[in-house]
Design goal:
The complex is a heterodimer of chains A (275) and B (255). Chain A is of the alpha/beta class and 275 residues long. Helix content of chain A is 45%, strand content 14%. Chain A has 13 helices and eight strands. The longest helix of chain A has 15 residues. With 255 residues, chain B is α/β, with parallel strands linked by helices. Chain B is built from eleven helices and five strands, in the order αααβααβαβαβααααβ. Chain B has a five-stranded mixed beta sheet with strand order 4-2-1-3-5. In chain B, α1 runs antiparallel to α2 and α2 crosses α9. The longest helix of chain B has 24 residues. Chain B is extended. Classes of the chains: A alpha/beta (275), B alpha/beta (255). The interface between A and B is medium-sized, with 18 and 20 residues.
């Protein structure tokens, strides 16, 4: 992390969901006990305040220190267009009751606005030490190329949809080359039918005696990608993140690679016009 | 008429006869009669909507494909996106669409300005190298300078309608036909009956509109016409570079 060289981006992340505070505390506690150290939320979800409170309680309950967890949040199109990035960062900090954020992100490369906003964020990173690193979500390669051309910093973290059906190999190579940490949102693709009934994933789950979500999270982990999983069920937190007891062989990884069919579950243009 | 259209026509005719008989009966019974008429009419409308697959869905201005919609409808990577106004679909040569997955976002009074907005919001549904067809008639740009032009039309104009994929089409219809009020249904019924009884009704309607636009253009001063051409070129150029950047193809069909 730029502003904190001793801290690294954890391997497993949990997305803060829309559950109530008590449920959120239970989920976070279970996540922390299962080895999750990364927590992800966004202004758009309108839960920053709740996440802050729940995290504080979960950390108290598990005895884990704040410095040992990684918290990131992001702002959406509206805020990026408004352009008062410094205010937005401080608003997030206030809402979450934190002194610093490990990563502050843009939810979208908002057309015509994200470059300027990113430059402001760059300035803020050096001037104001309240954020550890910078990130951006939902980018394609063309956005990163544009950033490379027009900005002085590339993001430290890039969060995009990565599932066995949409594996973004080109983007992954680019990120490895540039030292950008790649995070995968919706890694389980909501367990929709093509994932749930996929013969390769089913066979691998059977072979390793685990579930399909475990296979997918392990696959991401082995590729060096940080999966951000979202669940509202405590028991699933435990089972999904239990990926230490098995390893996917090169042959298994190759088989999963063959599932890629360019199927993207979340369509960007529906949320970010002209993306 | 294809099998679905025949089925729709048959159901509509049978339902109309039943409705008629019940209305005749109901006229002698005031309260009960009214209830029967209302129930029959609703039944008729329901049947009509249930079986009719060619009717263009109506909009309520709120429900258009956003991420919530895509979370319920899993079809992606379409080959073709059709923009333009409501006769666009019929202006794309059939051979271009054969065996292709087509997403039709054309709707009444949609002009190039609106097309571009719709494109910005929908292009992700296309696969890489997918094609956007915009059948362009001489007057396709005329609303740009229209003083009655209202940007809100964008929402009204957005009407995705999927064909060549019956399951998605049905699902879409469910979303887009939830408009209360029997007037819409009555209008649909009239449209259906016209289509059944007037040969080539749609083609005649399209010809009539093109004729009307040609007359409009003939009576338009040259200066305005030149402005329209400049506007048209400007939008097409902008759309072209937008598509190039996103690895999709833009094909303008001159009608």
């Amino acid at each position: 992390m730029r502003n904190n060289p001793n801290k690294t981006v954890p391997n497993l992340f949990m997305a803060a969901n829309w559950s109530d505070e008590k449920q959120m505390v239970r989920l976070f506690v279970e996540g922390l006990r299962s080895g999750v150290r990364g927590f992800d939320t966004a202004r758009e979800y309108k839960v920053e305040k709740r996440v802050g409170k729940a995290l504080k309680l979960a950390l108290q309950e598990t005895g884990i220190a704040r410095k040992d967890v990684f918290i990131q949040t992001r702002i959406c199109n509206e805020e990026i267009i408004r352009g008062k990035i410094r205010d937005e960062v401080h608003r997030s900090l206030d809402k979450m009751g934190l002194d610093y954020l490990d990563c502050f992100m843009f939810h979208w490369p908002t057309p015509n606005f994200y470059i300027e906003a990113w430059k402001d964020l760059e300035k803020l990173l050096t001037a104001d030490k309240v954020i550890g690193s910078l990130g951006i979500c939902n980018c394609r390669l063309r956005h990163l190329h544009q950033m490379e051309k027009e900005c002085s910093m590339l993001p430290d973290i890039l969060q995009v949809e990565i599932t066995p059906l949409w594996q973004v190999s080109e983007l992954k190579d680019y990120c490895s080359e540039k030292g950008i940490v790649l995070q995968a949102f919706s890694p389980l693709c909501k367990m929709i039918e093509p994932i749930r009934n996929n013969e390769i994933l089913q066979a691998l789950a059977l072979k390793h005696g685990v579930s399909i979500p475990q296979i997918i999270i392990r696959w991401n982990y082995q590729r060096g990608i940080r999966p951000i999983s979202l669940t509202t069920k405590v028991e699933r937190v435990k089972s999904n993140y239990d990926i230490e007891g098995f390893e996917l062989s090169e042959e298994d990884m190759k088989e999963i690679r063959s599932i890629d069919c360019g199927y993207k579950y979340h369509l960007e243009s529906a949320t970010c016009s002209g993306f | 008429m294809d099998a679905h259209q025949k089925k729709a026509a048959a159901v509509a005719v049978v339902a109309s006869i039943i409705a008629f008989l019940l209305i005749v009966y109901a006229l002698r019974l005031t309260v009960f009669g009214s209830i029967i008429i209302a129930a029959c009419w609703l039944l008729l409308a329901f049947l009509f909507l249930k079986v009719n697959r060619w009717m263009r869905p109506y909009l309520n201005g709120k429900e258009y494909p956003n991420n919530d919609w895509y979370r319920k409808h899993f079809d992606r990577n379409y080959d073709i996106l059709i923009l333009g106004d409501d006769i666009s679909r019929s202006q794309v040569p059939e051979e271009y669409l054969q065996d292709k997955k087509v997403f039709d976002c054309s709707f009444s009074d949609q002009n190039l300005y609106v097309d571009f907005l719709v494109l910005k919001n929908t292009f992700s549904i296309l696969k890489p190298q997918g094609v956007v067809y915009i059948p362009l008639r001489k007057a396709s740009i005329k609303y740009i300078n229209d003083k009655f032009y209202d940007e809100r039309r964008y929402y009204w104009a957005l009407s995705p309608y999927v064909f060549n994929s019956s399951s998605v089409s049905c699902a879409l219809k469910k979303v887009y036909t939830r408009i209360p009020g029997l007037l819409f249904r009555f209008k649909d019924l009239l449209y259906l009956l016209r289509r059944v009884f007037v040969p080539n009704y749609d083609a005649l309607k399209i010809l009539k509109r093109i004729e009307k636009e040609t007359t409009w253009l003939e009576n338009t001063p040259d200066k305005v016409k030149n402005d329209l051409k400049i506007n048209q070129k400007h939008f097409i150029d902008e759309m072209q570079s937008f598509c190039d950047e996103r690895d999709i193809k833009l094909k303008i069909i001159d009608v």
